[in-house]
Amino acid sequence: MENFSMANPVKIIFGKDMIKEIANEIPQGSKVLLTYGGGSIKKNEVYDQVVKALSGFEWYEFSGIEPNPHYETCMKAVALIKEKDIDFLLSVGGGSVLDATKFIAAAVCFDDGDPGKILKGGKIKKALPFGDVITLPATGSEMNNGAVITRAETQEKLSFGSSLTYPKFSILDPTVTYSLPPRQTGNGVVDAFVHVMEQYLTYYEGDSLLQDNMAEAIVRTLVTVGPKALEEPTNYDVRANLMWASTWALNGWIACGVPQDWATHMIGHELTAFYGLDHAQTLAIVLPGIMTVLKDQKGKKIKRLGKEVFGIEGDDAIDRTIKAVENFFESMGVKTHLSDYNLNDEAITKVTERLASRGWKLGECQNITPDVVKEVLTLRK
Ligand code: NZQ
Ligand code: ZN
């Protein structure tokens, strides 16, 4: 196991009827900004519960945060916060609303010129405190400090993270996920699955037994409850297990002491930036290609995944495991080829050129050059 340091300060409040706990978590006297997306929280009554919980506070709201949230939208919230002197943010929505809220919290306090610099490595020295009610199990954003923001102007989707952008608290009420459309349930399962793969499916065969076993436990849970969530969207136990497994997929614990890949995400972000695909759709296209092209490097871990999660052993176990992963994504309703989204060679060229212009070499061995990306995407036509 490699050396590591670890601290995760997020308070998780899990279960039915927990939204009211907001009132006990936000410091008394705070001026609060409620941030949310396109209105799903008004249809499923989450908004009403939040408003009730905020009754003892002076509060304002900012809506219209889009999936794959835009820097330009976030900056409108920054202006409102400055105008109203707001000092606590409450995100109510999926990963996009929460990521936007993380950016807004940092951008309000940014004193080194354009807050867009945060997306290019600008140091966050201060951020407003924030909490959240997460309504879509997928990103793990509720228990990590990362966020991904799109600059619409330049078609760039970029991530950042800081020890100052952990939520103070996250409320995980599985009942709020009953209203998810099948597409978003499927997306969430695929995203969480791939998060585990980015931290597990590497060349590394060190003795990180606990992390490997935990990673497999998370993925086994996703493979078990994911399809059930599509069949029985209001089954509490199914939704609860899905929600908690998604949080664990990216809360930092399985990353301790092991190398990490993240190439699938980086390539996927470019497909979203150029063509607007859902985050999970891009991952479902790219991951089977990465597994195929890098099967020598990742082979032992692919075999282990096959055996421990899909019950695959014997000859050509690697190829059958890759196929099992692809089939699992398809079973969650997420298509796995570029052509399923009407993308062709032009997309491959654009993504490859963008990555080349950044000089990025991806993957746990930094050997995924633009040429390798081209090979990966060509396999996924
Ligand atoms: O906007 P509203 O009306 O709320 O509707 C949303 C949105 O249309 C809807 N939705 C959310 N909860 C719902 C619901 N509809 C009905 N019932 C509910 N309970 O779902 C749609 C998608 O929401 P979004 O927040 O975009 O999805 P997700 O949570 O998958 O977030 C995706 C974003 O997170 C980033 C992605 O890149 C993408 O921008 N990621 C963030 C990460 C992180 N912070 O650690 C890691 C991930 O790898 C990922 O990159
Ligand atoms: Zn992801």
Topology of this protein?
Blueprint: E1 11-14, H1 22-25, E2 31-36, H2 40-43, H3 46-53, E3 58-62, H4 71-84, E4 88-93, H5 95-108, E5 130-134, E6 146-151, E7 156-161, E8 169-172, H6 182-200, H7 209-231, H8 236-249, H9 263-275, H10 279-293, H11 295-310, H12 317-331, H13 345-358, H14 370-379
Parallel strand pairs: 1-8, 2-3, 2-4, 4-5, 5-8
Antiparallel strand pairs: 6-7
What is the terminal-to-terminal distance?
A: 38 Å
Strand order of the largest sheet: 1-8-5-4-2-3
> Largest beta sheet, briefly?
6 strands, parallel
Highest CATH level, the class of the largest domain: Mainly Alpha
Helical stretch tally: 14
Radius of gyration: 20 Å
Q: Round the mean pLDDT to the nearest integer and report it.
A: 97
- Determine the CATH superfamily of the largest domain: Dehydroquinate synthase-like - alpha domain
**CATH topological fold name of the largest domain:** Dehydroquinate synthase-like, alpha domain
The CATH architecture name of the largest domain reads: Up-down Bundle
Uncertain segments of ≥5 residues (pLDDT<50)?
Answer: none
Strand content: 5-15%
Question: Which features does this protein show?
Answer:
alpha/beta; Rossmann fold; Dehydroquinate synthase-like, alpha domain; six-stranded parallel β-sheet; 14 helices; 48% helix; globular; binds 5,6-dihydroxy-NADP; binds zinc ion
In a nutshell, what does this entry contain?
The protein has 14 helices and 8 strands. The chain is of the alpha/beta class and about 375 residues long.
